[in-house]
Amino acid sequence: MKQVSEAGVLRKVIGASSLGTMIEWYDFYIFGMLAKTISTEFFPEGNSTAALLSTLAIFAAGFIVRPFGALFFGRLGDLLGRKSTFLLTLILMGGSTFLIGLVPGYHTIGIAAPLIVLLLRLLQGLALGGEYGGAATYVAEHAPPGKRGYYTSWIQTTATLGLFLALGVIMLVKMNMSDQQFNTEWGGWRYPFWFSIVLVVVSVYIRLKMEESPLFARLKSEGKVAKNPLKESFRKKANFKMVLLALFGAVMGQGVIWYTGQFYAQSFLETKALLNFEQSRTIMLWAILFATPFFIVFGWLSDKVGRKWIMLAGMLLGVIFYRPIFNEFLKTTDIKSWIADGVPAAQEKAKIETKKYNDQLIVIQKNKLHINGITVTESRYDTLAPGVKESTLYPPLSALDGDAGITAALARARPVYSDVTLPASLYYKFIFLVWTMIIFVTMVYGPVAAFLVEMFPVHIRYTSMSLPYHIGNGVFGGLVPFIGVLLQTTFTEDPLVGLWYPIGIAALSFLIGMVYLSNKRSAALE
Amino acid sequence: MDQIKKLLGILWLLLGPVIIYFLVTGAIHNIDPGGKKDINNPVIWIIIITIFLPIAIGLMIFGWYALKGEYSRKISDQ
User: Fold this and answer.
1) What is the largest CA-CA distance in chain A?
2) Membrane-spanning residues where (chain A) (predicted)?
3) Cα A483 to chain center, whole Å?
4) How many H helices and E strands in chain A?
5) Contact residues, chain B, for A489 at CB < 8 Å
């Protein structure tokens, strides 16, 4: 009977911790996924202050504030307890997200809008920095020896499930209204932010009912709580060297594998493979859905064979297969080369439309092409009567230049391809390739919570594990797109050159981990 | 294995300054107030260098510890 109630408690511990952490990830992701709309609403182009605030909102929240949140809340968690601290981070995150959804746009309240949004975004980063370490520590300190990898792997599913939820909610809202309804000042883009408060209230209610972690409660009752967790974590050599080892030998590599498999892949499918919005999103959704159980599988397996080699194998597979996989995405959708090589393309009747842009009239010809089983939109642009003032824009097109002139100008214009739609067989192939990369993520990420928890003693665990985790994920992982652009600008010939950053970091981390890490297998927690 | 750990320590120790050098030269080459890409934005470079400087120093300290044998089997098992 006792065994049944203990299993029940563990289920509640895992459920309450995982739900809250998933919501925090959801909250953090929706801002990034709606960045385009958010920037139009809060950070309009042409205003240098707004541009600076936008940069800070995107970069400072991930790179500076997350590690700082890890230190701030990690210290609190080691002083006050895990439960109260990760409850606080949840409320802070949920509250900030909900409030972002309530901030009026730049056109209504001016520069106050981006300032408030920046402040709330920084609070989100701070809260995220504090949440993960608390949840992972809390679950690990409840788990019996020999099952720590399995139990904490549920926490590891949350980052991916948070992404899944964010993608799903945004798609659901977007598919039920027009683009215009979605993008207006009080439009549909705000719904995912408002939805967060419902999730947070439920999660706070569940977490309030939980008890403190038994190891921390014992530490507290014995009066052995750390007096200064930051000093003990980073000023004592015995512990600091383990923080460094955790960062360089594990989470640094894990961060880039995680980011490349889930975020870089999606961005690549949209910007390089030019897939349409729905297909690029649903490919990610299916791949995530089928890969998520493997977090649990590899967490469980790490209890049997140790954490080290599973994590390192995930990094090595990324190093070996990233270029072939991304190259396959490019090759499969290489429209420009096919056209240049004269591959036959069926063309639907062209649509010609006009748009006003600033004080110019742009004419756009859109053709739908069917080539190698793929459907793609080919657009050709031409500017009519450049410099014409708006008041003179109203004569019909033919009056400005004549139909024959327009057709000739459009034929000379360089085509731009977009909205690639894959046939079923290629669509499933892409799902499989993304799934493969997320499997690498599950290998490095599934066992990492248990691995980090076991590296540090209970009185400074929250602080010590949170910092390397958020530097690995936030900084090394978060820099994947930036360094990708940097490399692409320097080495313009290779379209896959951006991948050398995650490959290089994962290889470095693999080498350090292979040489310096020990293969722990559910050691008893102190 | 302990000898390899120590020898590799020299590599980590040297890698720290190399990273700092590449970051600073990368910033000098790419910062362009007229540019539109993220890599032209000075604020982003300041953030990245600020956060990477302590990480590179951390890598050097890691190398130093490795060189001193802090990660050799007997010491790390204590």
Assistant:
1) 89
2) 12-31, 51-73, 85-103, 109-129, 150-171, 191-208, 243-263, 283-302, 309-326, 430-455, 467-487, 499-517
3) 16
4) 26, 5
5) 30, 37, 39
Average pLDDT over residues A457-474: 91
Contact A463, A77 (CB under 8 A): yes
What average pLDDT does range A449-462 have in this prediction?
92
The mean-pLDDT minimum among A48-57, A153-162, A195-204, A443-452 falls in: A48-57
Verify whether the Cβ–Cβ distance A475 to B51 is below 8 Å.
yes
Considering only residues A46 and A90, tell me which one the structure prediction assigns the higher pLDDT: A90
Quick one: CA torsion of A273, A276, A280, A285, rounded to 10 degrees? -170
Look up tokens 């039920």; give the residue: A176
Q: Number of A:B CB contacts under 8 A?
A: 67
H-state helical runs in A34-147 = 35-42, 48-55, 66-79, 82-100, 106-109, 112-142
Using a CB-CB distance cutoff of 8 angstroms, which residues of chain B are in contact with residue A479?
48
Residues 6+ apart with CB under 8 A from A321: A436, A437, A440
pLDDT of A389 over the 50 cut: no
Rounded to the nearest 10 degrees, how much is the dihedral formed by the CA atoms of A169, A33, A135, A230?
A: -160
Nearest CA in chain A to B68: A241
Strand, coil or helix: B68:
coil
Cβ of B48 within 8 Å of Cβ of A237? The answer is no
Global ipTM: 0.90
Q: Which residues of A265-304 are buried (b: 16+ CB within 10 A; e: fewer)?
A: bbebbbeebbbbeebbbbbbbbbbbebbebbbbbbbbbbe
Residue A382 has pLDDT above 80, yes or no: no
The mean pLDDT value of chain B amounts to 87
Query: Which of A63, A245, A247 is the closest to B48 by Cβ?
Result: A63
Indicate whether this model's pTM tops 0.95: no
